[in-house]
Amino acid sequence: MNTNYIYNMRYVLILCLFVASCSTPIEKALNSSSPLITRVTDSIDKYEVQILFTQIDSTDSGEVQFTDYSYGLNEQNYFYPASTVKLPVAVLAAEYADAREDITLDTPYIIDGDEELHSISDDLRQIFAVSDNKAYNRLYELLGRDYINSRLREKGYTQTTIQHRLATPEAAVNARKTIQFFPSYTAESIIITNKEDKDLIANNVVGNKKGLGYIENGKLVNEPMDFGLKNHFPLQEQHHFVKSLVFPNSFETSKKFELSETSRQRVLKAMKTLPRDAKYNQEEYYDSYVKFFMYGDVTTPIPDNIHIYNKVGFAYGTLTETAYIEDTQNDIRFIISATILVNDNQIFNDDTYEYEQIGIPFLAQLGREFYEQEKERKE
What is the pTM of this model? Predict the structure, then answer.
């Protein structure tokens, strides 16, 4: 055999091994040969993909060590966060209850225009198990956007802006509804008359005008859709929010929300709750109904050893998820956040998006790629 050929092959092999060793976990995942990944990476700029991935290890002293990787991050590249905004509002509602002496997470309440009793704890269950919009809107009524945004700024979330309710014609109205809490059958009720919020202030994020057109009142408007008055929750801040909620001892006290440990654990329990555990119909609300990473493209049950503490959002063609994933059987844990735009015709609000064909399968496979990498790294 030609010695030059042998030398060249050895050189190529060494080069391939070197390149592989220098690749980040995200690069490795995106270089997957899976068609669920390649049909996105073949035109990745079109899909406006952003990814954050955190490896989690424990030091000899027992401290948690994070190794962070990112791809395509750009706080000034706007994407619509959809239901991911329910996460900070849920946490702030739990903090609000903790700060009061007269109500708890379980205190029943009723809101104007609704005859049904609710509780913050039940709202948390609905928000995380099936991403219920009405539960989020009730907590929005309780807190209001002025309080929500002020509190987020105090804790370092300087780019996030919660502007409106979800899936309602009254999404952005300033006035909020009165809420009445019932601490017990004997005590007097607590009436919270909410003040009007201030007028919306447009976000100045670059790229908040998107697409070629949009549908309004059933008609096509041939100009980019303006998202300037919509919610904004950049991926970096979503990722940090989950990281600090799961591992509070790794962050400065001044930057953590003032949740009691009991309330924090209840929020985390709600985050990992599957629809079947929350008593929802399993045929309609299967395990991965709002858990896209790893399992979003299947309807089979998620294994009991896999816990996914997450929040997804999907609307206007944008799919986003942030999750802390742990495998209690194989000692695997990591945090992943990603967003992808699947709006091939570039027309917004027409309900013609490639969620099932491209977006959810991509996020599912992305989660599996990271899981397999971590499994191999721990072995």
Answer: 0.93
